[in-house]
Amino acid sequence: MAQVPQTFFDALAVRTWCGLALESLGRAREEIDAINVYPVADGDTGTNLYLTVESAVGAVEAVFSAYEVGKPTLADASRAMAHGALIGARGNSGTILAQLLRGMAQVLAADGETAHTDGSGLRRALRQAADSARQAVAHPVEGTVLTVASAAADAAGTAEGADCGAVARAAYEGARAALAATPRQLAVLERAGVVDAGGRGLLAVLGALVETFTGQAAPAPVPAFCGAHAGVEGGSRAVPTAGGSPSDADVEDCADVLDAGGPAFEVIYLLEAEDAAVARLRRRLDALGDSLVVVGGDGLWNVHVHVDDAGAAVEAGVEAGRPYRIRITHFGAGDVHTTGGERPPRERAQRAVVAVVPGEGLAGLYTEAGATTVLARPGEPPASGELVQAVRRAHAREVVLLPNDAELRHTAAAAAEQARAEGIRVALIPTRSAVQGIAALAVHEPERRFDEDVVSMTSAAGATRYAEVAVAERQSWTMAGICQAGDVLGLIDGDVAVIGSDVTATAEAVLDRMLAAGGELVTLVLGDEAPEAIAEHLEARVRESYLAVDTVVYRGGRQGALLLIGVE
What we know:
By secondary structure, the protein is of the alpha+beta class. The protein is built from 19 helices and 18 strands. It has a 6-stranded mixed β-sheet with strand order 15-14-11-18-16-17, with helices on both faces. Strands 4-5-3-6 form a 4-stranded antiparallel β-sheet, sandwiched between helices.
């Protein structure tokens, strides 16, 4: 079914473009993963680009959902797109794509009240995108996504006086020609017989832009495999066409041509820091490793680098500001990046638990208990693709998925369905709080039959009542009356039950209500901003007033709520 074209670049066009880009990357993901040989042959460029755009889509949808009447401005939507991509960026190419979208947003949101822009505005946005992405890379290399982005901007610049559809087509054709030329610009691509993976992903995103403004699919991209792989210069291999799935032999041949050597770790984190500190950080990380990309601004940055000393890269971030959502990936002993050899496949575990956790402290607790964790920062819920990645990372035949948040029910269900389609047996336990997840994990026994284990974990989670203490951000109606911004709220099973002015007193009132119905164990999870003496006060309250009830306390870190409470 043809897409209804957008005449101007407005908020709805941003929404449509992001959705179509996600669909396009979903179709091309396996092909892009297969040709990923630069800067590291880790076979995940397509997946990383997909997750980056999925995060952008989630942010844009959240902005639209906030409007009961009317729709957001172009500035609102484009800023949301850029912010979502920034906080969800994965890998080298995903980080660069986030900066491309941020560059576009800087132009599209320049006048916060403008309802839409035309072809001229789109040309300027594409130019700013290419230039800002190039500036974000410490050592730009031709034959990569940067080259493709620059070519798209150059071609768009020739479409003076054209509408958005014509500008988008020109950008796509310029990018398409540049992508075809990447093997001649980068030796590693020529040896592997492939085009650049990041550039191929950007072409998919630009193709979605064409469809947004014309209602028609863009012309087919150039074949991903070329040279000997395409039967050129004596080669005889059949080539996967655009959107087709590459064979295992294609992937192996791509890896076989790579040189050995290179840093052992990929380090990525979000960083809250001032511009001057980030400038110093760039110099520090540039000396530590390679593939350095630092994108963002206005106090929030996404940092990506390949290093041998992952700890030093994180320490540099600590010196610059506050790093979080830290991801460290070891490229692997014996893989093509570090030694050029072939690594034997890791044996799948029989069963694993994957859990979403709201803070670093609980992430450590869950990890010690054997779970694979996905960190959900306040206001940054994980996308379904991130949960699927965690299920894959667990590398098990059977997986128990704990979303630990009622708002993640649909996201977790979508991830479970995708994992099942990949042959993994997944059971989703609808835990609505991290304390229910703790209860479920406490009775987890991998040696039991899968169904029995799931029933036991589900029962333990269901028997755990949960609550949280948080601060109201705005005035609103609640089950307990009207609250004002700054009030302390006590929520039991998701509903506001207590409104107070003191954190400790509110927490005690919540705990008393919960224990009035009985209980044997109280779990307290303290956030970073909880009062220092609150745990000691609540433990004393339980000892004095509720005989035979035990209390356990954990540090949750920066988890959003001041306090999580579980009673089982």
